[in-house]
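User: I'll paste a sequence; please echo it back and then give the predicted structure.

Assistant: Echoing your sequence first, then the prediction.
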Amino acid sequence: MSFFNSQKLEQLEAKQADETDRSIVLVVDDEEHNRRVVSQILSPYYTVLEAVDGEDALAVIDQLADPAMLACIISDQRMPRLTGVELFQRLTPVLPRVLRIIVTGYLDINIIVDSINKAEIYKFIIKPFDRHDFLLTTRRAVEAYEMQRKLDRYHSDLEQEVQERTRQLLEKTEELDRVLNMLREHRAHHRERRAAEESWNRRYCAISDESGMPSYYEIGFESLVQSEWRSKNPTWPQAEIAAFLRDSENEFIGDKIVLAKRRIEGLWFIWARSKLPIDLLTRRELTVVEAMAEGLSHKEIAIRLDLSPATVRSHIQRIHEKLEVKTNAELIAKCLI
């Protein structure tokens, strides 16, 4: 048992279509009866225009206010002045996106080949045709055209967005250049004062691109990184810094230095400092040291960290060995420097 009548469903869909938003289908045929039949099939769904032959079709298209609304042209093949294939050949450079359908009562293989090769035909329909099959073919053609229009609009919007993002990036780059110039001037004006303020555990900043060659760095940054890689590269360790920037880890702990990085507006900000004794410890060991600095006993640390007292003592022993200290007081003092 069928719950839906297909003809009534088509009528309902046709009523729901907005007349102002309908796609246009152009029917070209020199026989009025054929044009009337096709228009009756399609008019509930589309705005249907008619032309009596190929030359008339060109005139109709030329008068359209918005040619982009023309989604499909359905043309008879054998007509005076212009055949269907000749019409479509004329239209290809003018309306390359419009879907083309040839309708003919003569099965000629040469026409089929010309339709496909020369006129870029979407479908080839032989008369007489089934009403529902004809409507379905036309629907598929219009849907394909509308999908292509949506893709074109999407690409256009995307291109505009890319242009706008590029403009914004250029503005931010110019702003960053001004900041860099200010930093360079500040460094030049305060070179002596900065040199006096340098200490063994101070952090120094550099700004670099992906290549590892900085566009700016503070005094002290260069000597720090060279102290780490002087044996491999006596000048600037560009390859080593570039490798660190490509690494997924945001921190590098070397033999003598510790590096940290952060990406901002397409540039890498890198901070370098001398390696501290505390850098030798694991996160668990650091947690134990912090608890010891608060004055907690072994048992209290074990309760806080959910460990056994024996495990806490093992951690402390390893910490002593790593930092080369003998007492807990020396340990805390060394970690808090």
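The beta strands are 24-28, 47-51, 70-76, 99-104, 123-126, 204-208, 214-217, 251-253, 257-264, 267-274. The chain has three domains: 6-154, 199-275, 279-335.
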